[in-house]
Amino acid sequence: MIIYTHDYINKVHTFLSKNNFHTISNDPTNKDHNTIQKALQQCDRIINKRQIKHLTQKNPSPPTLNALLKLHKLNIPIRPVINNRNAPAYKTDKKLNIILNNHLHLDNQYNTINSNTLANDLIKLKITNKHRLLTLDVKDLYVNIPTRETIYITRTQFLINDDRQTTNQIVALLEIILEQNYFSFQGRYTNQKRVWP
What we know:
This protein is an alpha+beta fold. The chain has helices spanning 5-18, 29-41, 49-55, 90-103, 115-124, 147-161, 164-179, and strands spanning 21-24, 64-69, 78-83, 182-185, 188-192. It has one domain. The protein contains 7 helices and 5 strands; from the N terminus they run αβααββααααββ. The chain has a 3-stranded antiparallel sheet. A two-stranded antiparallel ribbon has the order 2-3. The protein is flat, with a radius of gyration of 20 Å. The termini are far apart.
């Protein structure tokens, strides 16, 4: 799709203003990089000291926003895509994802791995004329996830199977990563103000 630059920029700014994003005056990349390094040094129960060097981003740069257009929606809103590959927390985030997957076992029968698995599961169902298949679309899902509740649930689940020290290190690292929610768009730095109860 071809769109005028000013229309594209207006769509991005509309999205940002409706979702509690604010411009910040300084690039927080160096500060966040130092915070991640210090946190990694204190996570000896979940991260091997030799891994810290590999989890530290060399020459970090701010995440950048790219807005994809949702052509199938009314008024063609945007889908924000943040490129984090060079962000301070990128490598640590990937490592934490592995740790969470290895330690956190949620017994949820309603989860599916991918669309093929879902299709295979649906074939096994005995469907009658009284059944209906519904799809739901949560508006701007990821920017509206309650972060504090997510951390609380994560802590609670970890305390079931892991000791308090390990849990505290995982949750501390998770909090730091989730707080680093800024990005750059057209040379300006923006973050989402989260309400932390």
